[in-house]
Amino acid sequence: MKSTLVLIPARNEADRIRPVIDGVRTQLPEVRILVVNDGSEDDTGAIASRHGAITINHPYNLGYGAALHTGYHY
Known about the structure:
This protein has 74 residues and is of the alpha/beta class. 38% of the residues lie in helices and 24% in strands. The longest helix has 11 residues, at 17-27. The protein starts with a strand and ends with a helix. The mean pLDDT is 96.
């Protein structure tokens, strides 16, 4: 499963990103988690990074589709 990547697009999810990451880790402990922080105005990216997710930060909001595209490109 180490080649599996879970992609999580997120924007202003500082209150929710940790439980989502923890839930993925509980169900799929071997996968890598990528959070694409789509220009959040809160600490979404920092929290995701602190909890072990690979994090890509858009400098401003580009939208859900762009966040997915960034993740697919990664």
